[in-house]
Predict the 3D structure of the following.
Amino acid sequence: MDKDKPRMFSAQDVRQGEIILKRRWQRLIFIGGLVAAVLVILLVRFAG
């Protein structure tokens, strides 16, 4: 392989993964984590 040429990757190989939440409890945990992150940011912002 020639080191001067940039490596080429197909779009299929480098695409981002998907978040697959099939079950209700998976969706609840995911949404709960997002809500918790927002609450922590708000608490830190208004506490100081």
